[in-house]
UniProtKB/TrEMBL annotation, chain A:
It comes from the Eukaryota. Residues 3-270 form the D-isomer specific 2-hydroxyacid dehydrogenase catalytic domain. This is Glyoxylate reductase/hydroxypyruvate reductase. Keywords: Oxidoreductase. Pfam families: 2-Hacid_dh, 2-Hacid_dh_C. One of its GO terms (molecular function) is glyoxylate reductase (NADPH) activity. Belongs to the D-isomer specific 2-hydroxyacid dehydrogenase family.
From TrEMBL, chain B:
GO terms for molecular function: glyoxylate reductase (NADPH) activity; hydroxypyruvate reductase [NAD(P)H] activity; NAD binding. This is Glyoxylate reductase/hydroxypyruvate reductase. The keyword Oxidoreductase applies. Gene3D superfamilies: NAD(P)-binding Rossmann-like Domain. Residues 69-248 form the D-isomer specific 2-hydroxyacid dehydrogenase NAD-binding domain. Residues 10-279 form the D-isomer specific 2-hydroxyacid dehydrogenase catalytic domain. SUPFAM superfamilies: Formate/glycerate dehydrogenase catalytic domain-like, NAD(P)-binding Rossmann-fold domains. The keyword Oxidoreductase applies. InterPro entries: D-isomer_2-hydroxyacid_DH, D-isomer_2_OHA_DH_cat_dom, D-isomer_DH_CS1, D-isomer_DH_NAD-bd, NAD(P)-bd_dom_sf. Keywords: Oxidoreductase. Signal peptide: none annotated. Belongs to the D-isomer specific 2-hydroxyacid dehydrogenase family.
């Protein structure tokens, strides 16, 4: 299964009586009905850890590109109309700013490790608080209430998985709690954000900017307002898109499939 | 008015400081530069008029290091290309066309390990990069260990091993065209050149040829010569090049801090006190 295709529904499962295993690429399994698959006796695997470093790197890349206006700057640098670079064209500083990480799993923690080297102040919100040593290693401060994180952060980075609890986690209320100078970065799933509320917030300057590797749907319809906003960077879900990582993902998927077909314990099985 | 002027705060190389200007300002005591680079100033000429010069070295280092990392990541992950794919009116693209290269575990070669170069090393370490560096002088052992950086006395050794080459030197007669045809050919064909120093440190024509013929994989340039480039310049058209408009220090925070440093320097000079960031002609 690559990029959520094919769609696994009852009809497909009924038409494949000998299906033993669905190996899904990446870590997210929100697109799979696990109960349905289990009831048909089909096993499921993913590729959980290999994606985390590249995804954390992309989160940092998006934060830096957004704050320093990299895409706009590139367009200015190459535009046929450019005669000079204006002296008052400025971005916002990343070093020393406050980063709020929503979802401090493997990916969120790797983002924290990177952000620490930029002397960022790190806040995080998570279902559970991390161990003290883990917090001290990156200088991260736990915000039991997401509101506290939203109110203090210059950058809010979403690294949760998509579940019933995180669906539309960031909506109108959350966006209004954020600073008007803040940037939202989403490397989790499009549905974690109420996209219509996000469009409104960006249009009305409730928040300053957004950088999204994920949307709902992917890709967005070509006339979607998010594609036209100047203060938005969108990338086509490339969190794990490096040659090396993709090769490892495919190797892991093959391993899981072979184990599944041989009736052996499946590496990276999702239960 | 010209007799009243005692200090000049130079913003982006304006005004141009030439003999004519210096002769017209008999009471000029100090020129404070916004930023660290002094290559646009004739230091000997200015000193001959008894005018002190100062730069703003501390304020620039974090912002410029951040910009260097931003360019490295944007290039590795092909951010500009994939952004255009994401917003384009047609969504037909091939998966294989959007794959980037890994940063973790890759080797970063830093040419010029001053304050900015060192801050880049601190950041790159957090991304689990292997760090090599080339510098006029080797850093202290503790400084090297803190970032896991290995000294390359010969630039060739750095160029041959690095996946990303980051140029962070100041522009001097020794560093002009430091990266030319020979150096580009020493680099891996899979390597990326990132320049956040000065356009003239790189032989631009050699760079264009190297990028066109696959001698190196890509380049990310915050600086060129001139700035901006003529609109028909080949660098503007290459798919494997990201150019940014000299944004290294262009943040609200950095410009504020630069101005603070410049004011400190100016007040010290006008009060006959030692100038904190005085730059002498070498």
């Amino acid at each position: 299964m690559w990029y959520h295709k094919p769609v696994i529904d009852k009809e497909l499962l009924q038409s494949l009586p000998n299906l033993k295993i669905v190996a899904s690429s990446g870590v997210g399994i929100d697109h799979l009905d696990l109960n349905l698959l289990s009831s048909c006796g089909v096993k499921v695997s993913n590729t959980p850890f290999i994606v985390s470093t590249d995804t954390a790197d992309l989160g940092m890349a998006l934060m830096l590109a957004s704050s320093r206006r990299l895409v706009e700057g590139y367009e200015m640098a190459v535009s046929p109309d450019t005669e000079y670079f204006p002296a008052d064209w400025l971005g916002a500083e990343v070093s020393g700013a406050t980063l709020g990480i929503v979802g401090m799993g493997t990916i969120g923690y790797k983002v924290a490790e990177r952000a620490k080297s930029f002397e960022m102040k790190i806040l995080y919100h998570n279902r559970n608080q991390r161990k003290k040593e883990e917090e001290s290693a990156v200088g991260a401060v736990y915000c039991k209430k997401i509101d506290d994180l939203l109110q203090q952060s210059d950058f809010v980075l979403l690294a949760v998985n998509l579940t019933a609890q995180t669906h539309k986690l960031i909506g109108k209320r959350e966006l209004e709690l954020m600073k008007p100078t803040a940037t939202l970065i989403n490397i989790s799933r499009g549905l974690v954000v109420d996209q219509d509320a996000l469009v409104e917030a960006l249009q009305n300057k409730i928040i300053k900017a957004a950088a999204l590797d994920v949307t709902y749907p992917e890709p967005l319809p070509r006339d979607h307002p998010l594609l036209k906003l100047k203060n938005v960077i969108i990338t086509p879900h490339i969190g794990s898109a490096t040659k090396k990582t993709r090769r490892v993902m495919m190797e892991e998927m093959s391993e899981s499939i072979q184990a599944g077909l041989a009736g052996l314990p499946i590496p990276h099985e999702v239960l | 008015l010209s007799k009243k002027i005692q200090a000049i705060y130079l913003w982006w190389h304006k005004p141009v400081i030439d003999r004519e200007l210096l002769q017209s300002l008999p009471n000029l005591k100090v020129i404070a530069n916004s930023g660290v680079g002094m290559d646009h100033l004739d230091l000997k000429l200015i000193a001959s008029f008894g005018v002190k010069m100062a730069n703003a070295p501390r304020a620039v280092s974090s912002s410029t290091a951040d910009a260097g990392m931003a360019l490295l990541l944007a290039s590795a992950r092909r951010l500009v290309e994939v952004y255009h794919i994401a917003i384009s009116s047609s969504m037909d693209y091939c998966e294989a066309d959007i794959l980037g290269v890994e940063v973790a575990g890759a080797t970063l070669g830093i040419i010029g390990m001053g304050s900015i170069g060192y801050k880049i090393a601190l950041r790159a370490k957090a991304f689990k990069m292997n760090i090599l560096y080339h510098n006029r002088t080797q850093r202290k052992a503790q400084e090297e260990q803190a970032v896991g950086a290995v000294y390359c006395e010969k630039i060739d050794s750095l160029l041959q091993q690095a996946d990303f080459v980051m140029v962070v030197v100041s522009l001097t007669p020794q560093t002009r065209n430091l990266i030319g045809k020979r150096e580009l050919e020493l680099m891996k064909p899979t390597a990326t050149l990132i320049n956040i120093s000065r356009g003239a440190v790189v032989d631009q024509e050699a760079l264009v040829r190297a990028l066109q013929t696959g001698v190196i994989r890509a380049a990310a340039l915050d600086v060129t010569y001139p700035e901006p480039l003529p609109r028909d310049h080949p660098l503007l058209k290459l798919k494997n090049v990201i150019i940014t408009p000299h944004l290294g220090i262009k943040t609200d925070k950095a410009t504020y801090m630069i101005t603070e440093e410049a004011v400190e320097n100016i007040l010290a000079a006008l009060n006959g006190l030692p100038v904190p960031n005085e730059v002498l002609p070498s």
